[in-house]
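Progress note, project year one: complex with 6-O-phosphono-beta-D-galactopyranose.
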Amino acid sequence: MSKLYDGFLWGGATAANQCEGGFDKGGRGIANVDVIPWGENRRKVMTGELNYKDLPADSYFPGRKAINMYETYKDDIALMAEMGFKCYRFSFAWSRIFPNGEGEVNEEGLKFYENLIDELLKHNIEPVVTICHFDIPINLVEKYGGWRNRKTIDYFVKYCETIFKRFKDKVKYWITFNEINMILHLPFMGAGITFNEGDNEEEVKFQATHNELVASAMAVKIGHEINPDFKIGCMIAAGQFYPYSCNPKDIWASIEKDRENYFFIDVQARGEYPSYAKKIFKRKNINLDIHPDDEKILKENTVDFISFSYYSSRLVSADPNICEKTEGNVFKSLRNPYLKASEWGWQIDPLGFRITMNLLYDRYQKPLFVVENGLGAVDTIDEDGNINDDYRIEYLREHIKAMKDAVNEDGVDLIGYTTWGWIDLVSASTGEMKKRYGFVYVDKDNEGNGTLERRKKKSFDWYKKVIASNGEDL
Ligand code: BGP
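Model obtained:
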């Protein structure tokens, strides 16, 4: 039975807005993620179709308190240590460090992350920090329009400089923007964008994208100046698009769909806008404000590694009559008759994981880092108090096998693997607690009721064994 190489970074992942809570504690400012509600309005606010200011007064915002890791991080880190985590991927809440995005830094916020990082290091857990996981201080949204405005680049760079300097000897792995391709699908969540009448919405989204791409490259630049040993990566919501059939029209459709996602990494890993993108902008009359130095900054500051989330492959057809759709990480896909799906309709495809990793590695030839993979499912507690989540174990087992094949059989250079939501947390797409990913159960429901008590699931000991055997004992 094969294992992974010594030093492989096994661990788990979370994001501040989905686990931390404490939105009004420690001097933290309000962010876009605090005004995204649970329920039927969630999607409309995330896409910018509904302005959060027009929400009903009794809306419930699950990210504000989440699972309260702000106060329980020490106990939670002890659970990670018990599982043998080698790394923990988490995000800083930008508005905890710069409450308004501009102006003074909040020392209490920096201190909070310093304490958390020290606690990880005490347990020999390598911190992997996402600088921006879907959040932006609301002041930058209201005053400048979020990432649609170039000014936001400067505030982001200031934020990066502050954290890089503070943690230069404690954090090595940094990820600039989580799932940067989400801007095109959920522009308010991904970039703090709301739309005005008369906007060319595509142009606004691609301008925000350009601003984030430049900001990401600037972060790489100053990060490497502050500590040349930093490893700074990009992050994409990955999952290969398959063609529905061998009809060349389907093949072409799949190439075009993949480019919508590869586009971001093409810029971040190769350092320039791909030629197909320039043609698309021209055809769609998208005119971007690109400053003279931008191209140089992008070219000279490509990422050190490519991180990605993988939950599912995707399927596309050129034939509009083939239209049975399924859900999956916000990306619409046709239903693949060869695959089973999760309770939320996300299709389960471990071989697709190997395929995706190979294609990413072939295309960029840079180290990869799997920073999200997992199964969102409903868990039930038995009469004797156990949670037998065999379905989760099965999902992870098959994906880890595929990942080992990509490394050991195909030669993909892979830094590590962090499962999404190692502890139950608020779902990004639905705001639910019921959609659980964790090895650790958290007592909280969709409406916000519960004791927040933590309870190990069956998968807890299973993952512990996987890590201890370096992926051999599955
Ligand atoms: C990704 C996000 C995460 C996470 C995950 C699972 O899109 O980066 O924040 O939530 O998907 O998705 P969901 O929570 O919608 O099930």
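DSSP finds 15 helices and 16 strands in the chain.
The two ends are 10 Å apart (CA to CA).
No further modelling is planned for this target in the current period.
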